[in-house]
């Protein structure tokens, strides 16, 4: 089929735009504690009310969204969560990794998280809190990982070429999150080179004030001899409990855990890479 002809077909372009808008609504509702009003959604999509109304009716009919009859606000159902759990269940990733990550969380007393790489993005899939701590960090389940600010993003970027890493960072922007955020191309590239040399990355109050984190990439030899990053394991802790040196000191323990995780990383059909 002629791709140029497809690109000029207004019906197909409109269909693609409709799908994009639907996912924009789903993602916005996932972050909205009390849902969103119809006016909120119209403003989010920047479309006329008729288009927004039809889109919401479609999402409601597909049971991804429901409208609270009391408030009139739209909320996300658990169908999206169910899809994610079904995906993770079929890959066996969570079943096989949680026991390993739990050991690390209990041994260190800190928040341990796993993110997986899919294409040009990295997404949180698991967060495990130590059971022994009274003061704990609350894990964020937002999809977006600020690549040059978070230990997970840095660890992933450090496994690729400087050109590709910089391209991914610039796509998302260099806007700082704190006064400690790396905000120049030179500083970011230097930090990634250091992370690549030592096999782990550190974010110290760059993503959130008072929080430090260390990340180690999960490297898998998927085809031939070339290894690729399929995920990242991070440990995060309050700076008052773990300073930068303490994070560096924990790196060998984190690398050991990642090596165990890499050995049982599922191919997708129940087999592993070990």
| Largest beta sheet: strand ordering | 4-3-7-6-5
The major pleated sheet works out as: 5 strands, antiparallel
- Quaternary class: single chain
Shape: globular
User: What is the CA–CA distance across the termini?
Assistant: 42 Å
Element string (H = helix, E = strand): HHHHEEHHEEHHHEEEHH
- Residue-averaged pLDDT: 84
| Unreliable sequence segments | 1-13, 269-274
Radius of gyration: 21 Å
Helix content: 40-55%
Q: What is the β-strand count?
A: 7
Structural class: alpha+beta
Number of helices: 11
Strand content: 15-25%
Molecular structure report:
With 274 residues, this protein is α+β, with helices and mostly antiparallel strands. The protein contains eleven helices and seven strands. The strands form two sheets. Strands 4-3-7-6-5 form a five-stranded antiparallel sheet, with helices on both faces. Helix 6 runs antiparallel to helix 11. The protein starts with a helix and ends in an 11-residue tail after the last helix.
Describe the secondary structure blueprint for this structure.
Layout: H1 3-7, H2 10-30, H3 38-45, H4 49-61, E1 65-67, E2 74-76, H5 79-91, H6 93-108, E3 111-118, E4 121-128, H7 151-157, H8 162-172, H9 185-198, E5 201-204, E6 211-223, E7 226-238, H10 244-249, H11 251-263
Antiparallel strand pairs: 1-2, 3-4, 3-7, 5-6, 6-7
Helix pairs in contact: 6-11
